[in-house]
Specification:
single chain, 265 residues, alpha+beta, four-stranded antiparallel β-sheet, two-stranded antiparallel sheet, 8 helices, 10 strands, 31% helix, 17% strand
Length: 265
């Protein structure tokens, strides 16, 4: 499951105060709490070492199933090198268990969900498979790039989503910033020609070609430094991850491709 905190059931935030009744019984009265400021949520996320990635409100038609009680979704992720250091220093990164970044993300985001009486949602471990890329475009000024990845106005192609918090409250949110895509002014589009395997074209992404290249001797550069197409993008170059982070991401990608192939009918 990619839902935590009661499998989608949101715990109540308001404590029940018992008022003495005249007959010696008790009368339950709900004590309302003020809405959680989204800034408090973002600050708590930042204290964990992960990165707040914006928030948005669900529409009425989206509030069904496990999201029936959710009004506001706040995204959490990694941006450039931000978020990596917290993971690299975590026990999950060093205890030899499988899927260390996913386990780290669950521990941290489940803790935040408990702190805020929210539901934790993840882009891995489904079903359900939540539409994080669609959500991202509503929470931040990210846009699709020519190679399909979402491009961020500051971090370029170097960002990812590790989870989200769903809140019952319809929070007051700042107006979503509207910024043009960095790709609009990029005439050369080097991301389309930089891949040594030719995996990225305007027709789409050839995942088998990419994986075959990475698994061979010629793929050493990408495995050590990260995807050549992403590195060719001029946006966000100041946030290019270091070799340890880049190599971790590439190994995780290959494991994911292999797992998908193993599950194919």
């Amino acid at each position: 499951m990619s839902v935590s905190a009661g499998r989608g059931a949101l715990p109540a935030r308001s404590p029940i105060a018992a008022d003495a009744a005249g007959d010696g019984g008790y009368k339950a009265a709900m004590t309302p709490e003020p809405p959680i400021p989204i800034e408090s949520v973002f600050s708590a996320v930042a204290r964990t070492g992960l990165v707040p990635r914006g928030a948005f409100r669900l529409g009425a038609q989206e509030r069904v199933g496990l999201l029936a009680e959710v009004s506001t979704v706040a995204l959490i992720g990694v941006a450039g090198r931000r978020g990596w250091d917290a993971f690299a220093a975590s026990p999950e990164a060093h205890n030899g268990g499988g899927d260390p970044l996913d386990r780290f993300s669950r521990r941290v985001i489940d803790g935040l969900a408990s702190e805020f009486a929210a539901v934790a949602l993840y882009p891995f471990g489904g079903p359900p498979h939540w539409p994080f890329l669609h959500w991202a475009r509503r929470a931040e000024p990210v846009r699709p790039s020519p190679i399909g990845l979402l491009i961020h106005p500051v971090y370029g192609l170097w960002h990812s989503f590790r989870g989200a918090l769903g809140f019952r409250e319809a929070m007051d949110l700042p107006d979503a910033a509207s910024r043009p895509s960095a790709c609009d002014a990029c005439r050369e589009k080097p991301c389309l020609s930089a891949c040594p395997a030719g995996a990225f074209t305007e027709a789409g992404y050839d995942v088998p070609a990419c994986a075959a290249h990475l698994g061979g001797a010629a793929g050493g550069g990408c495995m050590a430094l990260g995807c050549a197409a992403r590195r060719a993008c001029p946006a966000g170059r100041a946030h290019t991850p270091g070799p340890e982070q880049a190599s971790f991401a590439m190994r995780a990608f290959l494991r994911g491709v292999a797992a998908t192939a193993d599950c194919a009918p």
